[in-house]
């Protein structure tokens, strides 16, 4: 093995915790009452709308607006009529989300072990280049990552084979010599395996750690 590619959200970066905190903090500011059900609805909307973004049906900013149009009626909050007003409203959520960005405790130790073993390190993530790089910097991992490839930069999203192959190329490694690790079985594991990489599924719900794989 010459290189490891990590997924970012919910693999190195605890997106679920940050987004949950943001919703629970932001909704009361809008006059709503945060609840477990409401948080679950936020994530359901996020997944549906974000998939439309990955399919190039929406821009990154457009998927944020679409989220608000679906979510705000759930808390009886009026939906602003203009894109500019939607964008301004979303900054409330975004501020709380960004302010709570954090790495999983095992993330940096795992990257350090990989580096100590002479492995090149890549991150392959479906998302905005600017935001995903900002996450890596904020959670203190950017200095340990050699290559960051995003769906925005590549123009195509996981699990398309080209995403893994182009990341391997950027790392200067043959796919057969690269391991992909991620939390999504279909996107991070099966997709990578179909492209010729080794892959491991990180299942944090059963207590798995990244250190089990490096």
Automatic annotation (TrEMBL):
Signal peptide: none annotated. GO terms for molecular function: hydrolase activity. Its cofactor is Mg(2+). One of its GO terms (biological process) is small molecule metabolic process. The keyword Magnesium applies. PANTHER family: 5-AMINO-6-(5-PHOSPHO-D-RIBITYLAMINO)URACIL PHOSPHATASE YIGB (PTHR46470:SF4), N-ACYLNEURAMINATE-9-PHOSPHATASE (PTHR46470). This is Putative hydrolase of the HAD superfamily.
């Amino acid at each position: 093995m010459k290189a490891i590619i990590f997924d970012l959200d919910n693999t190195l970066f605890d997106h679920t915790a940050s987004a949950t905190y943001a919703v629970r903090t932001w909704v009361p500011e809008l006059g709503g009452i945060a609840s477990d059900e409401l948080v679950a609805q936020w994530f359901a909307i996020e997944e549906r709308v974000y998939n439309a973004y990955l399919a190039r049906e929406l821009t990154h900013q457009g998927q944020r607006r679409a989220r608000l149009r679906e979510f705000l009626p759930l808390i009886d909050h009026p939906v602003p009529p203009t894109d500019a007003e939607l964008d301004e409203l979303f900054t409330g959520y975004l501020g709380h989300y960004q302010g709570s960005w954090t790495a999983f405790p095992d993330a940096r130790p795992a990257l350090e072990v990989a580096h100590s073993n002479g492995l090149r390190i890549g991150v392959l993530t479906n998302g905005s280049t600017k935001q995903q790089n900002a996450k890596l910097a904020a959670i203190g991992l950017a200095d340990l990552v050699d290559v960051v490839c995003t769906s925005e930069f590549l123009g195509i999203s996981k699990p398309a084979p080209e995403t893994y192959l182009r990341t391997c190329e950027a790392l200067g490694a043959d796919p057969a010599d690269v391991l992909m690790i991620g939390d999504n079985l279909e996107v991070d594991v099966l997709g990578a395996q179909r492209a010729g990489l080794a892959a491991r599924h990180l299942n944090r719900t059963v207590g798995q750690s990244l250190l089990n794989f490096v």
